[in-house]
Amino acid sequence: MAEETPRTACIKIVANGPFIVEGDVKLSKKIITPRGRRYEYVDAGEIEHSTPFSLCRCGRTKTPPFCDGSHVGSGFDGREVASKVPYERRAGMMEGPGINLLDDERCAFARFCHREQGNIWELVAASDDETLRQEVIEAACDCPTGRLTAVDKETGALIERDEQPAIEVLEDPQRQVSGPLAVKGGIPLIGADGAPYEVRNRMALCRCGRSREKPFCDATHVDVQYRATRD
Fold it and tell me: Is 186 left (phi over 0), alpha (psi -120 to 50) or beta?
């Protein structure tokens, strides 16, 4: 019997509607958890789903993280307003003695940039210390939005983990909010107009419906105290 060809992963945005996820994509829940002065992801298990499946984008569903049609007639404005300028052109570069850092300031307030020895920008400045250089890499790779990316000083190569296609539904008990959809592994994102976004190894998609950077998270879920609830 011939081996089955894996289905290509893809996320398609429906105008004023959900994210439609196609292909082989692992869906799970992760808890943003403080550990001293730093944060880590705690695995809360996989979420069963069919293929394809739809994820709520309006923040009103009663079956989170899945769409239940609540966007219909709700007045949800899902217009995509985020810049499509490539990341490396949008991001500013901070140079350190041992490593550089790209930062496009697209923040979801996940706080993985905070480490035991200081925040990532402080660590870049002290990155002649190899231990702190490695902390910069770990902190950047943990950032769910892809805002922060460590850059090798000698080659200019962006340093990324090898991620498999996955979507992680983030919860943030410390802030008592539900966080974004953390997308990993270079899953293509197609806008409602059919135009693709830049393929990224990490990005965070808004699920509260209130971001000013749709379809991406901009931490508005914290300001509005968004909680995903299930009846």
Answer: left
Contact 46, 124 (CB under 8 A): no
C-alpha 167/C-alpha 182 separation (Å) is 6
Strands 10-13 vs 189-190: parallel, antiparallel or unpaired: parallel
Q: What is the pLDDT of residues 183-192, one digit of tens each?
A: 999 999 999 9
How deeply is 108 buried, as exposed, middle or buried, from its count of CB atoms within 10 A (0-12, 13-18, 19+)?
buried
Structural tokens at position 167: 């979507």
Nearest alpha-carbon partner for 135 in 112, 102, 164, 155: 112
Do residues 149 and 140 make contact, with C-beta atoms less than 8 angstroms apart? yes
What is the per-residue pLDDT across 81-107, written as a single tens digit (0 to 9) for each? 999 999 999 999 999 999 999 999 999
Task: Say how far residue 150 (Cα) sits from the centre of its chain.
Answer: 16
Strand order in the sheet with 38-46: 38-46, 26-35, 166-172, 177-184, 202-205
Burial class (CB in 10 A: 0-12, 13-18, 19+), 201: middle
Q: What is the pLDDT of residue 4?
A: 40
Counting as low any pLDDT under 70, the low residues of the chain are: 1-7, 230-231
